[in-house]
Specification:
By secondary structure, this protein is an alpha+beta fold. Helices cover 42% and strands 23% of the residues. The chain has a domain at 14-61.
């Protein structure tokens, strides 16, 4: 039977403008995205984070990746 786990974490995300795009970057996860607005960059970051967590969980490497971060 599968277990559902909820993890609450504060992950620092830096927002900055580069040329005509806004970048959302987390040094802690070495993960970044961009968008036309800060809001778009944040939306894309949340989506990328979800994919990152889902894939590392599926591969069984989430704990190892988090230790490295």
């Amino acid at each position: 039977m599968s277990q559902v786990r909820c993890i609450k974490a504060n992950i620092p995300v830096l927002f900055f403008k580069e040329d005509d795009k806004y970048v959302a970057y987390s040094r802690a996860l070495d993960l970044s995205t961009c968008g036309d607005t800060e809001k778009d960059a944040w939306k894309m970051f949340r989506e990328a984070l979800g994919i990152f967590l889902a894939e590392t969980t599926k591969m069984g490497t989430l704990a190892e990746v988090m230790d490295d971060c």
